[in-house]
Each structure stands twice: as structure tokens, then as C-alpha cells.
Write a structure and sequence with these properties.
Structural class: alpha+beta
Enzyme class: transferase
Number of strands: 6
CATH class: Alpha Beta
Number of helices: 3
Family: Belongs to the acetyltransferase family. RimI subfamily.
Subcellular location: Cytoplasm
Oligomer: single chain
Order of helices and strands: HEEEHEHEE
Strand order of the largest sheet: 1-2-3-4-6-5
Protein name: [Ribosomal protein bS18]-alanine N-acetyltransferase
Main location: cytoplasm
Shape: globular
Helix content: 25-40%
CATH topology: Aminopeptidase
Radius of gyration: 14 Å
Largest sheet: 6 strands, mixed
CATH superfamily: Gcn5-related N-acetyltransferase (GNAT)
Number of domains: 1
Distance between the termini: 29 Å
């Protein structure tokens, strides 16, 4: 799956501790220039490595890639994920709307968020 996504222009980062995967993040290219749009598909950090700034660094790397494209960035985040909401809002995202029952199988709601395009 990752190879297929990379082949169509998606971008992934991995955080490693030696040979152990500590976290990863993925950015999808939704529309190319001149009006580039991207979407953060995932940022995940293994529980043993949470609260160490790895998620913030992964996000920074994904946003740097989006900035190289001067792309708007979209994402969805659980409405009850306060640490992630604080991180996203701290990095320039704004809430656009609510997607009810977005996450399966839990049925949890998600906020749709957007960060405007920035120049590299």
C-alpha cells in the first residue's frame, strides 16, 4: 500500500529508534499546482514514544513538504483528541466543520481542519 501511495506522489516520514519504528506520518497530494492541496492522512506515534515531541516533528516535516508545493493542508481529527487539536491549532490549522460518525468502528466524530498555503 505504501509503495502504491508513494508512486502517485504521496509523502511519508518515519521516526525510528534504531531499528524500531517510533512513529510515522503521511501526506497525500490531492491537487497539484497551481492550486495545490494536500491532506494529512495519518500521524501515529507508538505509545512508548508519546509525549516526546515525535508527533510534532513528524507534523513539521509533513508541513514542510506541503510548503514546498505551496499547498493548502487539510486533515480530520477526533473531536475528543485534545492534544492533537492543540498541536494542529498551534501550527496554524483552523476548524472548518464536523464529520459525525467519521471514525469506524467507534463512530467517533471528527473535526475537519485546514491550514492555508504557505510559501517555502
Amino acid at each position: 500500500m505504501f509503495r502504491d501511495e508513494l508512486a502517485v506522489g504521496h509523502f511519508y516520514l518515519a521516526a525510528r529508534d534504531g531499528t524500531r519504528l517510533a512513529g510515522y506520518g503521511g501526506l497525500a497530494l490531492i491537487a497539484g499546482p497551481p492550486h495545490a492541496e494536500t491532506e494529512i492522512h495519518t500521524i501515529g506515534v507508538h505509545p512508548d514514544y508519546q509525549r516526546q515531541g515525535i508527533g510534532r516533528r513528524l507534523l513539521a516535516g509533513l508541513l514542510a513538504r506541503a510548503d514546498e508545493l505551496s499547498a493548502v493542508v487539510f486533515l480530520e481529527v477526533r473531536t475528543d483528541n485534545e492534544p492533537a487539536l492543540a498541536l494542529y491549532e498551534d501550527t496554524g490549522f483552523e476548524r472548518l466543520g464536523l464529520r459525525r460518525n467519521y471514525y469506524r468502528p467507534s463512530g467517533a466524530d471528527a473535526f475537519t481542519m485546514r491550514r492555508p498555503a504557505r510559501q517555502p
